[in-house]
């Protein structure tokens, strides 16, 4: 059963897909009730915990591209492996924040295939930006949804503004996807 879940987890290739991989792996370990080993070491005196930790580590390794094994071969526990990968690939530095912020504010519906891909791109980019520690509130994301729309959507934007509804990511996302 676990192999079917493993196949749905993207292989970690490096910095370019670390965020998506980390999210998927955390959920995989939740399914097997071993996600606690990402944050804490197994009790050295508890054989069952040691075995569970080793299994969790093995599951993680199966989701990592073989070209990255050189970085993780020396790790002994799930927590150590997780920390090592986070240090290597979790890019939350200032330049990453600026890059993501620039990308987020430049997203336009005209450059996307359709409304769904537009909405998905804004949500995904804002989540990545939040993942770097940058604080972006829900109202701002909702406003960015509206800001990236072409002029033909101006009547809808004006109607939303005049209606007095709270501009949030979810409220605007729902309206856009219902179109």
Shape: elongated
Number of helices: 10
- How large, in whole angstroms, is the Cα Rg? 20 Å
Our count of domains comes out at 2
Order of helices and strands: HHHHHHHHHH
Catalogue the unreliable spans: none
Helix coverage percent of residues?
Answer: 55-70%
* Count of extended strands: 0
N→C terminal distance:
39 Å
The amount of beta strand, in percent, is under 5%
For the largest beta-sheet, the strand count, sense and barrel status come to: none
Mean pLDDT: 90
Structural class: mainly alpha
Outline the structure in words.
This protein is an all-alpha fold. The chain folds into two domains: 88 residues, no CATH class; 84 residues, no CATH class. Helices cover 62% and strands 0% of the residues. The chain has ten helices and no strands. Helix 3 runs parallel beside helix 5, helix 7 runs antiparallel to helix 10 and helix 8 runs parallel beside helix 10. The longest helix is centred in the last third of the chain and has 17 residues. This is Retrovirus-related Pol polyprotein from transposon TNT 1-94. It holds the Pfam family Retrotran_gag_2. It comes from Eumeta variegata.
Brief overview, please?
The protein has helices spanning 2-7, 18-31, 47-62, 69-72, 78-89, 94-106, 115-131, 138-147, 154-163, 169-177. It is an all-alpha fold and 179 residues long.
Outline the secondary-structure elements.
Elements: H1 2-7, H2 18-31, H3 47-62, H4 69-72, H5 78-89, H6 94-106, H7 115-131, H8 138-147, H9 154-163, H10 169-177
């Amino acid at each position: 059963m676990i192999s079917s879940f493993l196949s749905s987890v993207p292989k970690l290739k490096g910095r370019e897909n670390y965020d998506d991989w980390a999210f998927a792996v955390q959920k995989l370990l939740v399914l097997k009730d071993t996600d606690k080993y990402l944050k804490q070491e197994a009790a050295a005196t508890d054989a069952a915990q040691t075995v569970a930790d080793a299994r969790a580590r093995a599951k993680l390794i199966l989701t990592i591209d073989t070209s990255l094994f050189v970085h993780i071969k020396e790790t002994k526990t799930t927590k150590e492996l997780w920390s090592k990968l986070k240090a290597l690939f979790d890019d939350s530095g200032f330049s990453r924040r600026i890059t993501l912020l620039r990308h987020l504010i430049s997203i336009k519906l005209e450059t996307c295939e359709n409304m769904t891909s537009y909405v998905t791109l804004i949500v995904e980019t804002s989540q990545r930006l939040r993942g770097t520690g940058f604080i972006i509130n829900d109202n701002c994301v909702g406003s960015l949804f509206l800001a990236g729309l072409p002029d033909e959507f101006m009547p809808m934007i004006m109607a939303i503004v005049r209606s007095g509804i709270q501009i949030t990511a979810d409220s605007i996302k729902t309206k856009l996807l219902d179109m």
